[in-house]
Design goal:
Blueprint (H helix, E strand, L loop, with lengths): L12 H4 L2 H6 L5 H5 L6 H10 L9 H4 L10 H6 L8 H4 L16 E2 L5 E5 L26 H13 L5 E5 L8 H12 L6 E5 L2 H4 L7 H9 L3 E5 L9 H12 L4 E7 L7 H13 L3 E7 L13 H11 L10 E6 L4 E5 L4 E5 L2 E5 L5 E5 L5
Parallel strand pairs: 2-3, 3-4, 4-5, 5-6, 6-7, 7-8
Antiparallel strand pairs: 1-2, 8-9, 10-11, 11-12
Helix pairs in contact: 8-9, 9-11, 13-14
The structure holds iron/sulfur cluster.
Length: 371
């Protein structure tokens, strides 16, 4: 019996630390889930109604983070479907693909001139209820074929303006080590590709993937590789998550975090402060706090922009600048992200500014022109 999992699983530590075991034992049906949690009527209805559209899968590890007594547990809200995901009254103001990611080449998005996104699989260890790419999950769990990957690589090779490639999904680290090595080798053969990043949630959902020495060596071999991950709540910062991050860092892979602001999960300044402090403790840099996108099936997680600004304002003065993410909203029509900041300039006359300091006080400061 392992701490934190005693209510749920009774397995050896070796199995618990095995990524393959975690994936093979994902909870994917209503009946399976009921063995572990007393589901609410809304959850039962949600699982039934979302079937075939927005799948259910939860790793034993992620499930073990849930407090089964608390229907509003923040992990539970992210992992267990609710009927609101398919309520037309709620979801009708949202879009399946608000950012127009789907382009000419399947799986490839070329939005900014110097960057591309490669969606290499539709598989995820856990299907997060707030996912901005929920539309792809109805396709079933499918990794891109070698031919499809080659088509993306050929495009990148032919476009010399591309310096930065983000490999994402679905879950890109669900691909085999061999396939990951293949993609990275091909990208490293392209002179103009300088930066390779992975968008992965496995440090949160199945950190055991990063206990695989062979994978870590592959990432080190193709350095510099960056990882963007996705912690949303302090409960997700566990010893195993820390071990995964540590392994990545020891193999030269910096880990940045992108949190999504989610109603009921983390729309609370104190929770967000705990999260950012926890991330710094495990050496993960909080990079972005994203305003939740108007994605069909996830729009019920949206908060107001004022809530996001309130959180950023609260963080300032309570944590060093290193721990304050950039709050950003993704513009519709594929126009990219814009940062949002609370108003720190209350008024200005010429070079005399009235600023709002972190403690709420007003400070008048004349900033002279440079000589
Ligand atoms: S792991 Fe990422 S891509 Fe997969 S469902 Fe969660 S948020 Fe979406």
């Amino acid at each position: 019996m392992l701490s934190g999992t005693s209510w749920a699983f009774n397995v050896s530590e070796d199995l618990w630390r095995s990524y393959t075991w975690q994936i093979q034992n994902r909870i994917k049906t209503l009946e399976d889930l009921k063995r572990f949690i007393d589901l609410t009527p809304e959850e039962e209805e949600g699982i039934r109604k979302t079937q075939g559209l927005y799948p259910l899968a939860i790793t034993p590890y992620y499930l073990s983070l849930i407090d089964p007594q608390d229907p509003n547990d923040p992990i539970r809200l992210q992992a267990i479907p609710r009927a609101v995901e398919v309520d037309p009254k709620v979801q009708s103001k949202a879009w399946a693909d608000p950012f127009k990611e789907e382009g000419q080449i399947p799986g490839l998005t070329h939005r900014y001139p110097d960057r591309v996104l490669m969606v290499v699989t539709t598989f995820c260890a856990v299907y997060c209820r707030h996912c901005m790419r929920k539309r792809i999950f109805a396709q079933g769990e499918r990794a891109r074929t070698k031919e499809e990957i080659d088509r993306m690589i050929d495009y990148i090779s032919a476009h010399k303006e591309i310096r930065d490639v983000l490999i994402s999904g679905g879950e890109p680290f669900s691909l085999s080590n061999e396939k990951i090595d293949y993609i990275l080798s091909k990208l490293r053969d392209i002179d103009h590709v300088e930066i390779i990043r992975f968008g992965t949630r496995l440090p949160v959902l199945a950190p055991q993937r990063f206990f695989d020495k062979e994978l870590l060596k592959i990432l080190e071999k193709h350095s510099p590789i960056w990882v963007n991950t996705h912690f949303n709540h302090p409960k997700e910062i566990t010893p195993l998550a820390q071990e995964a991050v540590d392994n990545l860092l020891r193999h030269g892979v910096p880990v940045n975090n992108q949190t999504v602001l989610l109603k009921g999960v983390n729309d609370d300044p104190k929770v967000m402060l705990d999260l950012m402090r926890g991330l710094l403790r495990i050496k993960v840099k909080p990079q972005y706090l994203f305003h939740c996108d108007p994605v069909k099936g996830a729009v019920h997680f949206r908060t107001t922009v004022d809530k996001g600004l309130e959180i950023i304002d609260y963080l300032r003065g309570r944590i060093s600048g290193m721990g304050i993410p950039t709050y950003a909203v993704d513009l519709p029509g594929g126009k990219g992200k814009v940062p949002l900041l609370p108003d720190y300039v209350i008024s200005r006359e010429g070079n005399t500014f009235t600023f709002k300091a972190f403690d709420g006080s007003k400070v008048v400061y004349t900033i002279d022109e440079p000589l």
